């Protein structure tokens, strides 16, 4: 009987070498679009050295900038008008104003946003808790006394209404200063109250008002206000340069010229705020 032969072992397959890392660079994620560059306010100001600084107090800067961008700039794309402007001698008219006007308007909007953000940060900063608590209680007590004894006096009643409308730390400081003056002016009537009236409240309110003003001045956004003032002054100057020139070109249609290129102050007048009617000045240190 023939012997069974054992088949030879199968040759082992060669070990696979480890996969080499890919040399292809990883796919780049699409770059995020960059926001448009903000106008270079400093560069704009250097081009107009004759500009006088200082923001007009009666002008709403944001409304003025929005009016220029939405209402005026479309008018300045008229080819006929641009051709007439191009014929004017440069000794009488600087065409750079047409280029810089929209940039000035954008600078105003940017500065307005920056200031609003800075003011919000200032308003969110807390006063010392003991100062806030004492000021709030003192104001409420003085208001109750004046309201009880002097509410029938119409001018004083109007002052009380204005004080009640206040909100925020600045209004609190101004309200305390105003209440201190009312206490001083009407002491004889107010001291008749035997329940809440405290003779020392007049001096206390003035002191608390001064302390709050001092705390708020630490975080005053001075640089942001200055930048907005510069941008607004530039906007007013450039707009008036353009508007006055166009009004002259359209002088045979004066009504049309005034309607299309009115004074910025007539279209963007700033409404009067409570704190401006009138705002009490920070009290001096009580004696």
What are the key terms here?
about 290 residues; 2 domains; elongated; disordered C terminus
Q: Would you give an account of this structure?
A:
The protein is mainly α and about 290 residues long. The chain has helices at about 40-45, 60-75, 80-85, 95-125, 130-150, 155-165, 170-185, 185-190, 200-220, 220-250, 255-260, 265. It starts with about 40 loop residues before the first helix and ends in a 20-residue tail after the last helix.
What gross morphology would you assign?
Answer: elongated
Give Rg in angstroms: 35 Å
Question: What is the assembly state of the chains in this entry?
Answer: single chain
Number of strands: 0
**Gap between N and C termini, in Å?**
134 Å
Q: Work out the count of structural domains.
A: 2
Helix content: 55-70%
Structural class: mainly alpha
Poorly predicted segments: 28-35, 272-287
User: Which percent range describes the beta-strand content?
Assistant: under 5%
Task: Estimate the mean pLDDT confidence.
Answer: 82
| Count, helices | 12
Secondary-structure element pattern, one letter each: HHHHHHHHHHHH
